[in-house]
Amino acid sequence: MHPHILYNEKVLAADQKILMAGQLGVLSGWGIFTTLRIYDGVLFEFERHWQRMARDAGVLRVGLTQNPDTVHASLLELVRKNRAHNAVMRLCVVRSQGGFWEGPGSGNRSDVVAMTANLKKWQDSVALDVAEHGRYAASPFAGTKTLSWSHNLTLAEKAVADGYDEVILLNERGEVSECTSANLFAAKDGITYTPPLSSGALPGITRLVMLEELKLADAPVCEKTLRVDDLFAADEVFITSTTRELIPVHRIVDRTLRKGGPDAWPVMTRLHSALTRYVRKYVEQAPRQAVA
């Protein structure tokens, strides 16, 4: 993590104490968050991130009282202070009032906390485990990005301990939902499929951009219910996230899908190139966001 954080509209030293036990979100994980990618000082797809946070805030009854333009300006100041021109950002909204254990707090309904960090070096391809009942698609909270993230962290940690890079989460119907911190895609006969949100998947921003913005005639992307057997039968499988962009999958449990090489994942490569072009255009068209 970089040396400065954002607390509401103030940029502070990262070691400064800002949250108190009496703030409900601290004790119970009651709050929401998102992870943004910073390209050349621009907060990529901030608008879509904020829209998702506003939706999640409504579902989880978190008072999202902050103005998005004000938050955006404060986040850019944090980027400037940390010199985080090409980095990753975590933006959190912590509920601060309500509940039996409420005590002295900030006096706000909720508090904004943000931090930046260097980009992580990801591997060229990943191996995935499979976890049954990792998602409950029927839950009214399915697809929300809540601060109470320990279940995902535990599953991811177990997968790494067992020799994998991530884990595929199945829902109560045995359908593929997502990974703990990535959406999942499978290409078959030139068409790329991703599970619908009804599977319990989180509506990832990279996923949304691929569905709505990357209109490639030779590599269409659409939603489709998938099972593990569909992944085994696919020509290519890959994961997506804000921090990873697109990374191919070479193995699921004990089944090798593809061997590496420059031509191993042609559909994913075309989509990744299209995403790179989209990011470049987004950054070029957002000079008002650029950090000096």
How would you describe what is shown here?
The chain has 292 residues and is an alpha+beta fold. It folds into 2 domains: 4-117, Aminotransferase class 4, branched-chain amino acid transferase, N-terminal domain (D-amino Acid Aminotransferase, Chain A, domain 1), CATH 3.30.470.10; 126-257, D-amino Acid Aminotransferase, Chain A, domain 2. It is 27% helix and 27% strand. The strands form 2 sheets. Strands 7, 8, 9, 10, 11, 12, 13, 14 and 15 form a 9-stranded mixed β-sheet that branches. It has a 6-stranded antiparallel β-sheet with strand order 2-1-6-5-3-4. The mean pLDDT is 93.
Measured by DSSP, the beta-strand proportion falls in 25-35%
Largest sheet properties: 9 strands, mixed
CATH top level of the largest domain is: Alpha Beta
The domain count comes to 2
- Uncertain spans, ≥5 residues at pLDDT below 50? none
Principal-axes geometry comes out as globular
Alpha carbon gap, first and last residue: 21 Å
* Assigned CATH superfamily of the largest domain: D-amino Acid Aminotransferase, subunit A, domain 2
How much is the average pLDDT? 93
Order of helices and strands: EEHEEHHEEEHEEEEHEHEEEH
> In terms of quaternary structure, what is this?
single chain
Proportion in helices: 25-40%
Structure class: alpha+beta
Rg calc: 19 Å
Name its key features:
about 290 residues, alpha+beta, D-amino Acid Aminotransferase, Chain A, domain 1, D-amino Acid Aminotransferase, Chain A, domain 2, 9-stranded mixed beta sheet, 6-stranded antiparallel beta sheet, 15 strands, globular
